[in-house]
Amino acid sequence: MALVSSSDIQHSLIAETTFGVTPTATVTRHLLPLAPDAPLLTASATQIASPTRMPNRSNNGSKQGMKMVDGSLEMRFQKAPFMDVLLQSALSGTFATNTLKAGITDSSFSVLSVLDGTSAAGSQDIMNFKGLMATGFSLSAKGNEGVMASFQVIGADFANLTTNNPLVATTATYNEFTAADAPSITVGAVTLDVAEFTLDWKVDRTRRPVIGSNAGLAFGVNGTTEVTLTIKAYRNGALSAITGSAQAVSLAVGGVGTGMSFSLPAAYGDVPTIEQSDGSAFTNIVFKGGYDATQGTNFVITKL
Fold this sequence. Notes:
Blueprint: E1 10-15, E2 29-31, E3 42-49, E4 53-54, E5 58-59, E6 62-76, H1 81-91, E7 99-101, E8 109-116, E9 125-142, E10 148-161, E11 169-170, E12 185-187, E13 190-192, E14 194-208, E15 217-234, E16 247-253, E17 260-269, E18 273-277, E19 280-289, E20 300-303
Parallel strand pairs: 2-11
Antiparallel strand pairs: 1-2, 1-8, 3-6, 4-5, 6-10, 7-20, 8-9, 9-10, 9-14, 12-13, 12-16, 14-15, 15-19, 16-17, 17-19, 17-20, 18-19
C-alpha cells in the first residue's frame, strides 16, 4: 500500500441503532467535514500486567483489558444531517420536528477513519471506532471569523478493518457559517452587539467495565448536565441586560430554513466584568443555564 497523506483520509459517521454495533445497511453514512489537520479520535486499552515472576527475573507479559476511545471532532458549524446525530448524542435527546431538548434519551454512533479504501477488499486500512457518545459540545465565534463546532467524544470499542463498510458515505455539502451569520444574542428583551461568544455543553459520561468482554457497556451519567454561555459584548446597554435572576437567553446561527437557534430558557448571569481595548469598551458576561419548568429542560436547540 502506498503512503497516505492526511488530506487523503476520509472520516465518516454512522448513527448506531444498537450501542457498539456499526450498521452496514439501511442507514446513512455521513462524510464528516474535518480539516486535514483536525484532531483525531484515539484508541487505547488498559494493559493488565501479569504479577508472575519468570526465570531470569523476567515477567510474564500482559493482556489487553477494556478498550477505550477518546478525542474530539472539530469542524465549521453547519446545519446538516450529521450535525443532528452529534447534537442528539450530546444532549441525550431527539429532534421532535425541529426542536431538540436536553433529556435522558442516549444515542451512540460510529466513526470510520479510512486511510486506504481503494486497495482490494481484505488489504485496506480502516479504523472503526464504535460505541461513541458525545460528552460535550462547544459552539464559538469571533467577529470576522468562522463559527466553529467541537464535540468531545468517548467510546467503548474499536476495530482495525481491512475491508470498508459497504455503506457509501454521502458527499453532500452544506453552508458553513461565519460570524456574519450569527448577528446577535438576545438577553430578555435586550439585543447585544457581540464581539465573541462561546457556548459550552457538558455531560459527565462514565465507563462501565463488564466481565466477559473488553468492550464496556453503554456509558453511565454522573451528576447533572451543565450549559454555559460566555459573551464578550460591546458596552452599549449590555450591563442593564443582566438581572442575576432566571432570564431567557438565546442566540441564532443562520436564518429561517438554513440555521439553528440555541436557547437557555432559564439562564443565570454572573456579575459582568468590563474591559477596554483597541478603542472599544466591552462587557464580559457568563450565563449558566438552569432548569426551566415550561420547557422541561435547561437547553433547547431549534432548527429555524
